User: Fold these one by one.
Assistant:
Number 1:
Amino acid sequence: MTAVTAVGATAPAAALRRPAVYPGQPFVGFTFDYLVIGGGFSLLVLALLASGTMPSASVFLKEHLWTFVLLSNSAHFAGSTVRLYTRPGSFRDLPFLTMGLPLVSLVVLALGLVFPGALGQNLLSLYLTWSPYHYSAQAYGIAVLYCYRSGAPWDEKEKRWLRLACFAPFLYSFLTIPGAGLTWLMPAAALADPAAAAVRGFAATAAMVASFAAPLALFVRHQVSGRARLPLISLLAVLANAVWLVLLSYQVAMVLAVITIFHGLQYLAILTIVHVKEQMKRPGNGAPAWRHAAGFYARCLGLGYLLFQVWPHAFVLAGFSYGESLLLVVSVINIHHFIVDAFIWRLRRDPSYAAAAASGGSGGDAVRHPPAQAASADSFRASG
Amino acid sequence: MGRGLLPMSTTLSALRVEKLYRLAFRLGLLIAVACFVAGLAHVAVTEHRLPGLEMDPLVRARNALAQGDKAAAAREYRGLAAVNSRDFDLLLQAAEGLVRAGDAPGGAELIGRAWAMNPGHPRVQTTLGWALYWTKKYDEAASRFESALRADPREVRAHAGLAEVRLEQRRYAEAEASLLRALELDPTIASAHNSLGVAYVLTGRPQRAVEEFGIAARLTPTPDILTNLERARGEAAR
């Protein structure tokens, strides 16, 4: 009787605590989470660039573009590798990923350079095709992560709808990116057929509409039904990804670079939070959180510099042109990152999930899922 | 008995696999470290600096052109076209670069490939215009740029190209108008800021030229642009 009373008493109390639109449980604070992890800052910057009202902002960004790319995007690529090799038990649990994949990547890179037409350009197309999938998977992972932190139970059906909403931008990219996706996999003659072109155009339009309408509809449905509510920050992360992949010209160099900067920021923020939480929980830890964060980021930054700024020059020394070396190094690093990410965030009972999903609070806001559920493939799959 | 042997063979096989993994890891690590050392040493020896923050695949080709090393530039452009022949924009940039590097047939071949990918696309017209500009066929180039702009009035490089032609033809007012339009559409084109600076100098407005050369130098500090900036500063100070 007492237990029934307790349950009956806590449920309305929890409902009363929530505002009309649930903003989500932030990791750091609402401002940081909405701007960086949710992608709000990217929307502000991209709107400023698109409006053309401040040409000096565009010039400033272009002037320092590669610095920002190093600080964010290059570091984020290195981040998955640093995470892989610093995560306890990685060598034991993932022997191929930790010990075999680096050599395989090097061999593939060398072959791509030697056979640019037969292999190199296909590596590039594979990376360009996979990249929007990776972005959409990250948006989905972030959305689900905040859902878990909200404590609301999600069944498979609801997750499937959310997944579909998150992957609509990928479908749009797959159908429209020149040199990748459909244009890579299908012969040009087949795509040029008027009927095929019409179907493709219709599908791309449908995917474009679904990229925005589907997450909004899901959010409204959750608000109306009053259960398993999608936090506002989850919606923001999914819509930000849709803007990146659908509204902006994905292959225009500067826009692409700006998008990668914000994608990297999102990833680095989550990764650093996971790392710091783990380190702080270690027995005998005496260092403050900022020191763990700074140390982790410094390693990511250093490796990012070596991978993107130094590595291509080694192949120039071997007689290849800088342009093709850079493009293929970037392609192989991307593909390696996609594979590593898919594994390091997918492991069941992975400590990352407990660290990332736990709110750090207590009572009604704490994670209510058993660890195995929180650690499922869906809780934070930053990559595909 | 047979059952008893199985775990032993399995263990041996697992040990062998683990050994192979460790060997692969050490080899991979060794190659990666060697690549990093080689990359650092190569830049340090040839350029007397550490590798800088630059991830533009065309940067080496542009630098080679700026230094007059046409063979190196052509090699870079050909390498890019070989590995990224499906990227429409990069193919067009490589085509224009090859023409500038003196390989007009190579450039034409890449323009043909781009045309096959997107027949009649305004950017192909623009690249044709630039190819004609670099071979000093200014009237034909202007015609191509105008054709591209009729198809797409927001084609930035066609505005910039038309401006270059007008500068060559000493039609400075028209050049200035085209450059201002190009920079309105994309304020980050260093060459357009540089050309606008040139137009200002040639029409007696060195102070405004300093501003434009200054922006161009911030975006791409090539020796040409830095020289222009210094000259304009000198004229403005008089």
Number 2:
Amino acid sequence: MLEVTGLEVAYGRAQVLFGVDLAVPAGALACVMGRNGVGKTTLLNAVMGVLPTRAGTVRFEGRDITKMPTHERVRLGMGYVPQGHETFGQLTVAENLRVTWEASGSKDRSVIDEALDVFPRLRPLLKRRAGFLSGGQQQQLAIARALVTRPRMLILDEPTEGIQPSIVTEIEDVIEHLHKERGLAVLLVEQYLDFAMRLADRFTVLDAGVVVHEGAGAELADEGVQRLLAV
Amino acid sequence: MNAFMNQLPIGLSIGAVLLLIALGLTFTFGQMGVINMAHGEFIMAGAYTAYMLQDWAGRQAVLVALPVAFAVAGLMGLLLERTLIRRFYGRPLDTLLLTWGVSLVLQQVARDLFGAPNVQVKAPTWLVGGGEWLGIRMPYARMFIFVLAMLSVAAIWFYLSRTKQGRRMQAVMQNRELASCSGIATSRVDQRTFFIGSGLAGVAGVALTLIGPVGPALGTYYIVDAFLVVVAGGLGRLQGAVIAAFVLGLLNSYVEFWSDASLAKVVVFAVIIGFLQLRPQGLFVLRSRKLT
């Protein structure tokens, strides 16, 4: 479904990714792992077109989208939840979802209700400004916002980082549900090894901007792989 | 006492003009980080639009000019954004130099087209003179400007909070990256913001024809004060711009009343500098609680 080949990304003169390959088959859950600062977020940003690429290609469902603007990628069915539970802070929860729904060009309002069914805790907060929610609530809103775009693939950057433990499990359950029940492909950047081990079909380990290991999810239990991730 | 109170409509109308100018600036600055020095020339373009329309609409030119000037100035802004400014996004200092250059060019174009001397736009007869209210002399023209600004603020508020395009604009202003990740075509929103912001400057230009002559350098008298309103009010904030514009307008006209125009400027600058020491982010802040 998603194929990244030879991806190179640089911030000015500082190159961050050196020829990264990555593939997410349809309906699979792929996990990108690695220590801090190895280029995981950069990889996702480049996949979404938030950052320009220096070389390499990104293909989604066979289509070359390397030069496509971000908002068009969203319309193709790539739902992105960036790092740090980002929301439109001054807009209410309802407006956050609505502005996203309106941008999708869809006439069908039920997508908002469907997203809220996934996160029923957001319903009583609809009139609250997103900036005043807790981190966990903001992250639920962030994922709900991505769901409103009706993605076929969900791209999540450390969805449980910096979030109160009670909500972490909830978010993990939602990701599992979306993946298993709805068949969404998922590309996940994750630090928590046990969550990745439980869910990932495939995983890729990055180190200093290159892929140092990749394999099937079960291999994550392998000691050699764990050593690559140890801080 | 009466002389004192008579300054009130003057201060309010200056504040109203500043507000119209600052609304456009605060959105282009807040949303795109562009310091648009050519904004003042959109004011001038609006004023000359009213002047030109006199041949056709006679004394009602000011009324006819309001929508026309909005469109003329708006299109100028759009053209500037499309051809030049968008190549400089993310480089605020370069846009400052660039738009300053554009500003000088546009002033010279106006001089070539309309001549260097100031011209006059005749106000509609129903805006000439004034009434009295609680012993305060209320010139109709100044009241008209005040009402015009209030209506514009109401329209902008409605646009921002009640329409699809307005919500998009807010989303882009608050978090550009997330907006594009939500499927919003941010460059289209930028164009629309530029059109509306520049159009409002054109409307301000029409308003200015009611209280003074029109010249090629008209915009330069107001642009600095309008930037002060933007900074003091907080970037991209409607309430902030409204309060800051009227405080500045009143402060300016009262100090001017007690002393003279140059001292008024000094006082206004001193107050703004002092205020920004205490609150560098302005009256209102766009970003609220943000975790991590």
